[in-house]
């Protein structure tokens, strides 16, 4: 596999939509009108305040102490991210419809071949892939990435819910093959496996690689997804760092289920430092065999098995939603020390620094650069969500 990051191919300036409004003469007169209204309102409020102050002074009314706190009171009604199965049928359809809406909106980044808003996210992941995996900021970067995707669904597609997460260990512990998991249902879910391709060897031959390493034999599928809402949908970015128009592919592999059981989740949750937690969660090649993150990608296969372009399969956001939930749950098990526990190398190859809370996360214009400290607590004013 090529270890190469494409240079940014910016066909449009990376300027968010809200900063790109044109001013017309009509706008200017509207502005003048608005400004004079604001001045009038301010003047009358000031007058009212003087009257009230004079009144309370005369009547010796104690002024209530100010309890307003802009930082801690900002997340009073957090969004709730639920497991796919806990959504009602309408909520499931609403999420799929919102993703399809993003797939129909034009790009605002023009990054790396992106044509749609859905592509924008996939393209950012392709360009940043080498920088955000197998490093200390793997979990916080993906947390910010998912949060920004969720914001786009809400702000641009009128979606009122949250990203549903996919707890694959429930399917495996129930003895259900992937193809029968409710999340891959053709009518109420993400659609099923790709069409069978004889001797399918993975996007980059990675299935044959897995088999030759003695890990697991390849599963079936490998071709285009044939049913569900994304059958016939064409991606513009990927596979890998390529820019090609291609169908969404999957290659379900139930032979990986041993890496994705509830017992494996318990193993990861039992780690006592962030360093051990993040490596045991993310997997190879830092660990000798697969773990939750890479096994989840590879069990779906196809686009999802591609370390660059995997967000081309909408199931990416639900797989990473579950990993994000595990991190949030792990922090809650011992909140005070863990909400500030951050570590790991900053790059895969030396020279590298140690990742700390002040390390900056870059989504290449999808959202402002943020420090890791802003991603540590999902109940912060910025993130404001919880898991159920
Ligand atoms: Cu990733």
From TrEMBL:
<keyword id="KW-0186">Copper</keyword>
<feature type="domain" description="Tyrosinase copper-binding">
    <location>
        <begin position="133"/>
        <end position="150"/>
    </location>
</feature>
<feature type="domain" description="Tyrosinase copper-binding">
    <location>
        <begin position="313"/>
        <end position="324"/>
    </location>
</feature>
<keyword id="KW-0472">Membrane</keyword>
<dbReference type="InterPro" id="IPR002227">
    <property type="entry name" value="Tyrosinase_Cu-bd"/>
</dbReference>
<dbReference type="GO" id="GO:0046872">
    <property type="term" value="F:metal ion binding"/>
</dbReference>
<keyword id="KW-0479">Metal-binding</keyword>
<dbReference type="GO" id="GO:0016491">
    <property type="term" value="F:oxidoreductase activity"/>
</dbReference>
<keyword id="KW-1133">Transmembrane helix</keyword>
<dbReference type="InterPro" id="IPR008922">
    <property type="entry name" value="Di-copper_centre_dom_sf"/>
</dbReference>
<dbReference type="Pfam" id="PF00264">
    <property type="entry name" value="Tyrosinase"/>
</dbReference>
<protein>
    <submittedName>
        <fullName>Tyrosinase central domain-containing protein</fullName>
    </submittedName>
</protein>
<feature type="transmembrane region" description="Helical">
    <location>
        <begin position="30"/>
        <end position="55"/>
    </location>
</feature>
<keyword id="KW-0812">Transmembrane</keyword>
<dbReference type="InterPro" id="IPR050316">
    <property type="entry name" value="Tyrosinase/Hemocyanin"/>
</dbReference>
């Amino acid at each position: 596999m090529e270890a190469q990051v494409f240079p940014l191919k910016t066909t449009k300036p990376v300027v968010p939509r809200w900063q790109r409004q044109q001013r017309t003469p009509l706008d200017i007169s509207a502005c003048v009108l608005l400004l004079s209204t604001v001045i009038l309102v301010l003047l009358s409020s000031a007058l009212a305040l003087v009257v009230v102050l004079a009144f309370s002074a005369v009547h010796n009314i104690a002024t209530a102490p100010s309890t307003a706190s802009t930082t801690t009171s900002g997340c009073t009604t957090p969004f709730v991210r639920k497991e796919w199965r806990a959504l009602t049928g309408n909520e499931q359809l609403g999420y799929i419809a919102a993703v399809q809406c993003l797939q129909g909106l034009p790009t605002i980044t023009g990054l790396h071949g992106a044509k749609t808003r859905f592509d924008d996210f996939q393209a950012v992941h392709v360009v940043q892939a080498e920088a955000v995996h197998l490093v200390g900021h793997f979990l916080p970067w993906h947390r910010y990435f998912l949060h920004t995707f969720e914001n786009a669904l809400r702000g641009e597609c009128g979606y009122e819910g949250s990203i549903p997460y996919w707890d694959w260990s429930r399917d495996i512990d129930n003895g259900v093959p992937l193809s029968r998991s409710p999340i891959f249902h053709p009518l109420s879910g993400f659609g099923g496996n790709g069409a069978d391709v004889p001797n399918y060897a993975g996007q980059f031959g990675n299935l044959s690689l897995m088999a030759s390493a003695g890990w697991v034999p390849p599963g079936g599928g490998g071709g285009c997804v044939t049913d569900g809402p994304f059958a016939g949908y064409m991606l513009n970015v990927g596979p890998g760092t390529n820019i090609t128009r291609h169908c969404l592919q999957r290659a379900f592999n139930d032979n990986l289920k041993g890496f994705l059981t509830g017992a494996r989740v318990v193993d990861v949750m039992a780690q006592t430092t962030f360093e051990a937690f993040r490596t045991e969660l993310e997997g190879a090649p830092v660990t000798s065999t697969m773990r939750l993150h890479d096994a989840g990608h590879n069990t779906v296969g196809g686009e999802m098995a591609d370390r660059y372009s995997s967000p081309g399969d909408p199931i990416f956001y639900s797989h990473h939603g579950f990993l994000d939930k595990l991190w949030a749950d792990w922090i809650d098990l011992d909140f005070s020390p863990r909400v500030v526990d951050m570590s790991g190398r900053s790059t895969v190859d030396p020279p590298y620094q140690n990742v700390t809370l002040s390390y900056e996360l870059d989504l290449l214009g999808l959202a402002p650069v943020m420090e890791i400290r802003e991603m540590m607590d999902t109940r912060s004013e910025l993130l404001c969500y919880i898991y159920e």
